[in-house]
Amino acid sequence: MLGMMITGHGEFSVGMKQALEMIAGEQVFCEAVPFFEDMELEAFNLKIFETIKQLKEQTDGVLVFSDLKGGTPFNVSMLAISEIADTAMLTGVNLPTLIEGSMLRLTETDPVALAKILMNTGREGLEQVDFPVKREETEQEIGGI
């Protein structure tokens, strides 16, 4: 089993975890680590490292999900996983990715392999939906002149 850590700006990680649990049920070994504007970088860095280490001690590995490539949560998490074995990271995460990941992580032991699978899930979860525009009937169509 793999652990999951979700991080991002503001309440993103907390909201994503709440949405995940609303759909897929309570998640064990899944932590949300928010980054707030007024946080000290060192405190956030420590929280990320500690969370990943704790999850790693209880699972086969850890998959980290972040909101935005290049943002502080991403950068700090990348530093952490570069120092902790059996970890991987996905950025630009969406809810379909978290839902699929929450199910597959129960039997998967390789976070890199799971990350590769979830890349497709993330892409498939993002879709432009077109609805036909309802046009107004002309007078001729409704029997007019």
TrEMBL record:
It is found in: Cytoplasm. Keywords: Cytoplasm, Kinase, Phosphotransferase system, Sugar transport, Transferase, Transport. The keyword Lipid biosynthesis does not apply. One of its GO terms (cellular component) is membrane. It comes from the Bacteria. PANTHER family: PTS PERMEASE-RELATED-RELATED (PTHR33799), PTS SYSTEM MANNOSE-SPECIFIC EIIAB COMPONENT-RELATED (PTHR33799:SF1). This is PTS N-acetylgalactosamine IIA subunit.
